[in-house]
Design a protein that fits this description.
By secondary structure, this protein is of the alpha+beta class. Helices cover about 20% and strands about 35% of the residues. A hairpin with a 2-residue loop joins strand 3 and strand 4.
Length: about 90
């Protein structure tokens, strides 16, 4: 069996908190995924299905390399990603 490692590709991500509302809307609007805003968060129609993502739930919304957006549990996100700094 062969082993593989993910390529180090930077992705956009925003923690789902009320104070990040405008940043979340901006990222979702530029993505290719259908989404809806709720009073207490967002509903993201990802490839895994319809996923409610509530403010303060320790979730991030990630925008993938093809513009797809999807929620990610905070612990999984922190275990998998580190902040990337760029001079872009």
């Amino acid at each position: 069996m062969r082993l593989y490692v993910k390529k180090p590709i930077p992705v956009e991500a925003v923690r789902v908190e009320k104070e990040n509302r405008e940043e979340i809307i901006s990222m979702l609007s530029r993505g290719s995924t259908k989404w809806e805003e709720m009073q207490n968060g967002f509903v993201v129609h990802s490839w895994e299905g319809i996923e409610p993502t509530l403010y303060g739930s320790d979730y991030y919304i990630i925008k993938g390399i093809k513009g797809e957006c999807y929620p990610c549990d905070g612990k999984v996100f922190r275990d998998s990603y580190t902040e990337f700094y760029s001079d872009l």
